[in-house]
Amino acid sequence: MIGRKIIHLERVDSTNNYIANLLSRAEIDSGTVILADEQTQGRGQRGSVWSSNSAENMLFSLFLATEILSVKDQFVLSQFVSVSLVNMLNNFGLNAKVKWPNDIYVNEKKIAGILIENQLSGSVLKSSIIGVGLNVNQKEFENISATSLMKELGEFTPIQSVLLSFIFELNKSWELILSNKVTAIERKYLCNLYQKGMMCSYEDELGVFSAVIEGVNSNGNLILKSSEREKLYYDLKEVSFK
User: Fold this and answer.
1) Is 44 exposed, middle or buried (0-12, 13-18, 19+ CB in 10 A)?
2) CA atoms within a 13 Å half-sphere pointing along the CA-CB vector of 232
3) What are the helix and strand counts (H, E) for the chain?
4) Pairing of strands 124-134, 58-65
5) What is the torsional sign of CA 29, 33, 39, 41?
6) Which class for 133: exposed (0-12), middle (13-18), buried (19 or more C-beta within 10 A)?
7) Helix or strand or coil: residue 174?
């Protein structure tokens, strides 16, 4: 069960690093959650830095045994966490979207980011460290287009209530995976994909072009359809939103 054990830290370099250190000593059980008030070396996707004011946001990591999944199913974990975040934010009355692959947006602004670090054993996805940064009570953001529950709702939200709501949604989504109902998660992910079905601008190694997001394949590649080119499949670092 996710969240059966919750470790609350005042300050840490990174909640993902904290789990990795426990894992190296075999001192952590599946489902353990780490919550920190402050991270000194928080990380995001593509080597970016995740910056957060102390004690204002949910800085969260989860350790999960994932032997039921194969290496080729890694993107299912990204969808699982993204859908859980969307469901949780919906519960707070927000219309959240997943900006491929797993940033969470509300009203065209980023509210959460996900960093997943998997441990592989042959063809099996042995375990996963899942890090999430969610803006909760922070009001001001420097040099980035971001939002928070506070900015969207206009009121303070206890981080503990956000954490418990998120853990509840994670357990619901994880049960779908355990019950071999992954398609339900995939459908929810696609239904909430940012800019899906809209003609928008993207940029790849050849330059800027217009395209429509058709979906995502089982490998997590973004599928774009453009009148300027043939149907395109992109991996994480091969295309950017303009």
Assistant:
1) middle
2) 20
3) 5, 12
4) antiparallel
5) positive
6) buried
7) helix
Show the domains of the chain with their CATH numbers.
6-191 (3.30.930.10), 199-241 (2.30.30)
Model pTM?
A: 0.93
d(CA 64, CA 79) in angstroms, rounded, equals 15
Quick check: bond before 101 cis, omega within 30?
yes
Smallest Cα–Cα separation from 238: which of 210, 215, 206?
Answer: 206
- With tokens 């940064």, the residue in question is 133
Segments of 13-137 assigned E as strands: 33-39, 58-65, 96-99, 103-106, 109-121, 124-134
Polymer length in residues for the chain: 242
Query: Going residue by residue through the chain (242 aa), what tens digit of pLDDT does each one get?
Result: 999 999 999 999 999 999 999 999 999 999 999 999 999 876 655 455 556 787 899 999 999 999 999 999 999 999 999 999 999 999 999 999 999 999 999 999 999 999 999 999 999 999 999 999 999 999 999 878 999 999 999 999 999 999 999 999 999 999 999 999 999 999 999 999 999 999 999 999 999 999 999 999 999 999 999 988 877 999 988 999 99
Q: Write down the residue that tokens 């998120």 correspond to.
A: 166
